[in-house]
Design brief:
single chain; about 190 residues; mainly beta; ten-stranded parallel beta sheet; globular
């Protein structure tokens, strides 16, 4: 699978990009704001303005990272894999995601897990003001992982008709305080 790895550099991708998969290729390009080789990256700042992508990591894909400061902004694009505020591995620090548009076919997650021993300690802040969401929006991808600190999801707008779950952190190991805030959005359930 093809990956664009930004190694912590401030980067903007996707503006005026037309992404396609050639015949026989099943995945689009994955974006990784941090590293894939285990080398520590303390700060990431990735902005996605369009294009078609597979998975997006606001942090690094592999390793153990302390006091990280991850920032991911999405203003448009289509995402066929999961989108993560942070990355994979044992991590501590802060992860911030801001989404104003785009289509997210596999969900939005605070952190990923490669093995049950992976954990996240710190704050995860996800703010959504637009976009179309499928799957789930949750602090993690596996209930076996440990998440400690705070998880805050702020909903200001978006299309959630295809979403299966908004999750807090109560199902995960660890001690994480969850906040799900509907800011100016009518969250009243409606029957069809």
């Amino acid at each position: 699978d093809a990956k664009l790895v930004f190694r912590g550099r401030t980067a903007t991708v996707g503006e005026n990009v037309a992404s396609i998969c050639d015949a026989g290729i099943s995945n689009y390009i994955t974006l990784i704001a941090g590293n894939i080789d285990g080398t520590a990256v303390g700060h990431t700042d990735l902005t996605v303005k369009g294009g078609v992508w597979q998975t997006v990591y606001g942090g690094s894909y592999n390793g153990s990272f302390d006091e990280a400061d991850y920032h991911l902004t999405v203003t448009d694009g289509s995402f066929y894999g999961k989108v993560y505020a942070s990355g994979v591995g044992t991590q501590s620090g802060n992860a911030v995601v801001k989404i104003s548009d785009g289509t997210f076919y596999r969900g939005l997650f605070g952190t990923a897990v490669a093995a049950n021993k992976d954990s996240y300690i710190g704050s995860i802040l996800m703010t959504i003001s637009g976009g179309v969401f499928y799957g789930k929006i949750a602090p993690g991808t596996s209930y076996d992982q440990s998440i400690n600190g705070t998880y805050t999801l702020i909903i200001q707008g978006g299309d959630f008709r295809h979403l299966t779950d908004f999750e807090g952190a109560e199902k995960y190991f660890g001690s994480c305080e969850s906040h799900i805030v509907f800011d100016g959005v009518d969250a009243t359930p409606r029957l069809a």
